[in-house]
Amino acid sequence: MTSSPGTPRRVVIAGASGFVGQALVAAFREDGYDVATIGRTGTATWADPVGIARVIDGADVLVNLAGRIVSCRYTAANRDEILRSRVDTTRALHRAVRDAAHPPRVWMNASTATIYRHETESGNDEIDGVIGDGFSVDVATSWERAFFDGDLPATRRVALRMAIVLGDGPATRMLFALGRLGLGGPQIDSWWFPHRRYRGIGARPSGPVWSSWHRTRGRQRFSWIHIDDVVASVRFLRDRDDISGPVNLAAPGVSDNRTLMREVRRVAGMPVGLPAYRWMLDPAMAILRNEPELVLKSRWAEPAVLTRAGFAFAYDELGPALDAVASVRRPRARDLFSN
Predict the structure, then answer these.
(1) CB contact at 8 A, 208 and 197
(2) How much is the mean pLDDT over the chain?
(3) Nearest CA to 215 among 190, 250, 248?
(4) Which residues fall within 8 angstroms of residue 154, CB to CB, at 6 or more apart?
(5) Cα angle at 96 between 153 and 87, to 5 degrees?
(6) 38: phi then psi, degrees, rounded to nearest 5
(7) Residues near 86 by Cβ (< 8 Å), separated by ≥ 6?
(8) Residue by residue, what is the 3-state secondary structure of 82-117?
(9) pLDDT tens digit string along 253-312?
């Protein structure tokens, strides 16, 4: 442990103001940690490298969730900010850890399961998973390169390749909003006017310049994880000194889009939902200031590292996970689906 005997352990959480960050702050406090935060406000701010260095030196655990939310339209300005906000903040933390007299023993940095390619035939685990291409993948690979750069011999590093998190957060609210618009059936990829929003970005841009589509007929895979299992897995990884490198935070019970939307309708008490093709979704998502990629890309991440290490998911199937979300936020879920 980095902390002196008899003093509380300290965790530093960067990007603590978001949905996942607030849950982790509460969990670490429950575990008896002193919690310091880094963000636009907090114990230290991104504009204060001296303050960042001060809070990290002597901390036991560092968790970085900083980054502009991806639940937005991929305009040129948003694309640049999504990448910059992840890479620059990770580099700032890297410098502080490198220079600390007493660096954290473990640093967990957010990443994303979107790093893997569009996949419908088999899951992607941390060992054999195939990295994809295009904007979202380039953001993820640039993020992880900044994180794993250089030698930090005293600090174990874990990249949290997080699937879509179910709870009172932006992804779940967006799915409910689609249902409210009458688009609660399967989302079906189809031709749409090519655009350049998904083109590669960063120092090593990958993939085609123009968008394309896949004939998935609503069978694209949907990897997800309940917020309670995000918190539990972070605790598990914090205490397992033998685990480092990329770790998929995704429930074993991967769904497909048709099943997902059927379960959303069930939880919401909506008996029917119109199927939505890309030509319907793209204009609707523009109104919602979001991207259809969230529901049209086939995301299939398998949590091999966690399951082999003995981690037990509280929610390994989609239906009970959505029931749990609804039981906590029932009034809001009803409102989203009311006329």
Answers:
(1) no
(2) 92
(3) 190
(4) 103, 105
(5) 95
(6) -125, 135
(7) 66, 67, 68, 139, 142, 143, 146
(8) HHHHHHHHHHHHHHHHHHCCCCCCEEEEEEEHHHEC
(9) 999 999 999 998 888 777 788 898 999 889 988 988 889 998 899 999 999 999 999 999
Residue 4 belongs to a domain: no
Task: Report the alpha-carbon distance of residue 328 to residue 333 in Å, rounded.
Answer: 9
The interaxial angle of helices 135-148 and 76-99, nearest 10 deg, is: 10
On whether residue 321 sits in a domain, the answer given is: yes
Model confidence over 70-113: pLDDT tens digits?
Answer: 989 999 999 999 999 999 999 999 999 999 999 999 999 999 99
Q: Are 110 and 67 in contact (CB under 8 A)?
A: yes
* Contact of 169 with 294, CB cutoff 8 Å: no
Beta bridge partners of 38: 14, 44
Domain limits for position 267: 10-337
The dihedral formed by the CA atoms of 317, 322, 325 and 326, expressed in degrees to the nearest 10? -150
User: If we measure between CA atoms, which residue out of 268, 163, 273, 283 comes closest to residue 218?
Assistant: 273
The pLDDT tens digits of the residues spanning 116-157 come to: 999 999 999 999 999 999 999 999 999 999 999 999 999 999
Residue 92 lies in a domain: yes
In a domain, 207, yes or no: yes
* Tally of CB atoms within 10 A around 252: 16
Handedness of CA 19, 246, 252, 163 (dihedral sign): positive
Give the amino acid at 18: G
Query: Count of domains in the chain?
Result: 1
Q: Which CATH number goes with the domain that contains 271?
A: 3.40.50.720
